[in-house]
């Protein structure tokens, strides 16, 4: 399984764009990149998933360079309610048993 | 309607007791899981259950035993509770074992005193 490295924490202000980068140097050919969001006292929630280039949904965008050794989760115009832990996962699309969550990035959004 | 629900949400119990946490999903998913999140917030998978097949994480003590009466339910029974079992336990499900998209419950806070 590809190991991931993310910043431990980040601070931002409301209305700003936040970019969280995840390094995964030993990503394998069959690996997908998935991001989850976890609010305090709740379970993680799927945000976005991608394999290469760019993926966008109503919540975020995911940028993946050609070498796929890193990825960047982009949250446009964050609000206070975006304060959460964001996890980057890399692995084959083979189900939760091989899904290992790292320490994640704790995002603090300030007013 | 809650997609993945687990009960109880909070549980305080003494060392040596046996307790169970129940989980139900109404998403029609084939695969269910139990995760443990410790005080350092690391989220680790404990079990994966796809229909009648249970996949056990060998690092989990055998005091922990999942039971699945049907594919919509996966309960977790813990024998002889220890202080180190204190954690948040999350139940989750996914459409199939080939899915990387996992839906989590809200967690069960277990405190062993």
Describe this structure in words.
The complex is a heterodimer of chains A (111) and B (113). Chain A is mainly β. Chain A has strands at residues 9-13, 18-23, 31-38, 45-50, 53-56, 61-64, 70-75, 84-92, 105-110. In chain A, the strands form 2 sheets. A 5-stranded mixed β-sheet of chain A has the order 1-9-8-3-4, with no helix packed on it. In chain A, strands 2-7-6-5 form a 4-stranded antiparallel β-sheet, with no helix packed on it. Chain B is an all-beta fold. In chain B, the strands form 2 sheets. In chain B, strands 2, 4, 5, 6, 9, 10 and 11 form a 7-stranded mixed β-sheet that branches. Chain B has a 4-stranded antiparallel β-sheet with strand order 1-3-8-7, with no helix packed on it. Chain B has no helices and 11 strands. In chain B, 35% of the residues are buried. The interface between A and B is medium-sized, with 25 and 29 residues.
Shape of chain B: globular
Summed up, the helix count of chain A is 0
State the separation between the terminal residues of chain A, measured CA to CA: 38 Å
Structural class of chain A: mainly beta
How much β-strand is present in the residues of chain B? Answer: over 45%
The termini of chain B sit apart by: 33 Å
Order of helices and strands of chain A: EEEEEEEEE
Biggest sheet architecture of chain A: 5 strands, mixed
Concise synopsis of the structure shown:
The complex is a heterodimer of chains A (111) and B (113). Chain A is mostly beta strands and 111 residues long.
């Amino acid at each position: 399984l590809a190991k991931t490295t993310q910043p431990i924490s980040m601070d931002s202000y409301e209305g700003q764009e936040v970019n969280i980068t995840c390094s995964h140097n030993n990503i394998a050919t069959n690996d997908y990149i998935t991001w989850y969001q976890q609010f305090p006292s709740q379970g993680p929630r799927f945000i976005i998933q991608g394999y290469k280039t760019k993926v966008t949904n109503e919540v975020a965008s995911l940028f993946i360079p050609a070498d796929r050794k890193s990825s960047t989760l982009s949250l446009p115009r964050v609000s206070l309610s975006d304060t959460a832990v964001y996890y980057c996962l890399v692995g084959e699309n083979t189900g939760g048993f091989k899904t290992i969550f790292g320490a994640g990035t704790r995002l603090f959004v300030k007013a | 309607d809650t997609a993945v629900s687990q009960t109880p949400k909070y549980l305080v119990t003494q060392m040596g007791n046996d307790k169970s946490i129940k989980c139900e999903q109404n998403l029609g998913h084939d695969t269910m899981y139990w995760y443990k999140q410790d005080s350092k917030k690391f989220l680790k998978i404990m079990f994966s259950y796809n229909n009648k097949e249970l996949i056990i994480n060998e690092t989990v003590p055998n005091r922990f035993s999942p039971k699945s009466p049907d594919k919509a339910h996966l309960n977790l029974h813990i024998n002889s509770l220890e202080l180190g079992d204190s954690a948040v336990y999350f139940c989750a499900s996914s459409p199939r074992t080939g899915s990387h998209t996992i839906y989590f419950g809200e967690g069960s806070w277990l405190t062993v005193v």
